[in-house]
Write a structure and sequence with these properties.
- Helix content is 39%, strand content 12%.
- The chain is an alpha/beta fold and 480 residues long.
- Strand 10, helix 13 and strand 11 form a beta-alpha-beta unit.
- Helix 4 crosses helix 7 and helix 6 packs across helix 7.
Length: 480
């Protein structure tokens, strides 16, 4: 029986251009980016450059290896995103609290993110500001109480991160309250400048998480609480051993019994923060790869069906348009394509793949309109790194298609010229950066997510000149 296909999200009804830039990659004097001054300046720069979309990586609390894709909560926001300067403005901190020792200024202020130092510096200040807030009876304010009522997930997160320590519990509840305020401010600021926000939702959650502790019946666990099987993907172009993510699989019968309410709440929470969210590993909604618990690699596993059509049907009842982008890279099958298309979801195209594989379907001029095109994602090499690492035949194929000149500029032009409704360029590719700026190497557990933009790029004369060139390119491609 034929299935009526749903229409695409209204945001993708116009040809748009965007930038992939994670919060931690923003400049900051404290070790990693946050929701404060630099985020607002970056929004100004995006608007000046003609972009109307800002895409981020997952914004939940980071997990092992500082990975945003291994978060211990599907609902909370990473605590260190809380900007400190607004806390000074509100009298919760003194200006002197933000002073950094001279020996630490260069290490914290420039270069790769220093997550450990960033966390240590900020958490000490958060503790002081939280104490000041509660001492002033701010916790009894109407806004604070309304946030508690709206954030039904907050109790599970506080239980997980703070245990029974009353001071820690009060601090972490306050952090999420303040993050909610700062996020709303940033989103409103972006909206006034015509910039939509796109987020990222990992399909799986970690075993040691607030989600699993609060809802163990929704996951396939042993009696001792450990996963029965582990998530991952089989060997591919990224890794000869495959990728062993180690997350528990869902107990789909339990989700059916509750009419997928946990998933609907998860996407609803994301939709409060973003206009659209990318579902990482969308293929897992059709079938997911299972690796035996205790395995050291993902070489041996099996695919198991998932009730994606039931899940998306249930979600559709809560949204006028599903606010989802399908990360449909990998082992794409006709069944996965049908699942994506029947619900009106845009898929993804990676321009690097066209010249790596040579398949005509990957070539940019053959991209479908209902798609989001990237030169490369956070998992790929930067374009300059990619071009230098290709063999002679691949480089020749690229040059025949793209012409001469810097590889990153050619790649950005190709992406913007694609028929795809949305083209998203990584900030690293806009700047023409090489291997040191790569965000993530799949299959590795350390050394990732660290790239941070130099503070002078978006605020100085060079940033203004770059914005003017990009605006001309965006306009020429018929995008906004």
């Amino acid at each position: 029986m034929a299935v009526e296909q749903r229409t695409s999200h209204p945001l993708l009804a116009t040809r748009r251009a965007g930038v992939l830039m994670h919060i931690t990659s923003l400049p900051s004097p404290f070790g990693a980016g946050d929701l404060g001054i630099a985020a607002h300046k970056f929004a100004d720069w995006l608007a000046a450059a003609g972009f109307s979309v800002w895409q981020m990586l997952p914004v939940g609390p980071v997990g092992y290896g500082d990975s945003p894709y291994s978060s211990p909560s599907s609902f909370a926001i990473e605590p260190t995103f809380l900007a400190l300067e607004p806390l000074v403005d509100r009298g919760l901190l003194a200006k002197s609290d933000l002073k950094i020792a001279p020996r630490d200024k260069r290490r914290l202020g420039r270069g790769d993110c220093d997550f450990a130092a960033n966390r240590a510096f900020r958490m000490a200040r958060y503790a002081k500001a939280a104490a000041a807030f509660h001492a002033a009876n701010g916790s009894r304010s109407r806004d604070f109480k309304r946030f508690h009522e709206r954030a039904s997930w907050l109790g599970a997160w506080v239980d997980f991160v703070a245990g029974t320590d009353p001071t820690a519990r009060a601090m972490h509840a306050w952090i999420q309250y303040e993050l909610d305020r700062q996020w709303a401010d940033l989103r409103a600021y972006c909206s006034k400048r015509g910039i939509a926000l796109i987020g990222d939702v990992p399909i799986f959650v970690t075993a040691d998480s607030a989600d699993v502790r609060a809802n163990p019946s929704l996951f396939r666990l042993r009696k001792d609480g450990t996963p029965e099987v582990l998530t991952g993907v089989p060997p591919d172009g990224f890794s000869a051993d495959g990728q062993l993510w180690g997350h528990p699989h869902y107990a789909w019968d339990a989700h059916r019994a509750e009419r997928f309410s946990w998933w609907i709440s998860r996407i609803a929470c994301a939709a409060e923060r973003f206009d659209l969210v990318r579902i990482d590993h969308f293929i897992g909604f059709h079938n997911a790869y299972e690796v035996p618990a205790g395995a050291k690699t993902a070489r041996k596993g099996e695919w198991r069906r998932a009730p994606g059509r039931e899940l998306l049907t249930a979600m559709s009842g809560s949204f006028e348009h599903l606010p989802l982008i399908a990360e449909d890279l990998g082992a794409l099958t006709p069944e996965v394509e049908a699942l994506r298309d029947d619900f009106g979801l845009a898929g993804m195209r990676i321009v690097q793949n066209a010249f790596w594989s040579g398949k005509s379907g990957d070539m940019p001029h053959n991209h479908p309109v209902r798609a989001v095109v990237y030169p490369g994602t956070h998992d790929n090499e930067t374009t300059e790194q990619w071009f230098r690492s290709r063999d002679a035949a691949q480089r020749a194929r690229f040059r025949a298609y793209a012409g001469d000149g810097p590889a990153h500029q050619a790649m950005n032009r190709i992406a913007l010229a694609s028929p795809a409704a949305l083209a998203v360029l990584s900030m690293q590719d806009i700047l023409g950066l090489g291997a040191p700026a790569r965000m993530n190497l799949p299959g590795t557990a350390s050394g990732n997510w660290k790239w941070r933009m130099d503070p002078g790029i978006v605020g100085g004369a060079g940033g203004r000149r770059l914005a003017a060139k990009l605006r001309a390119l965006v306009d020429a491609s018929g995008r906004v």
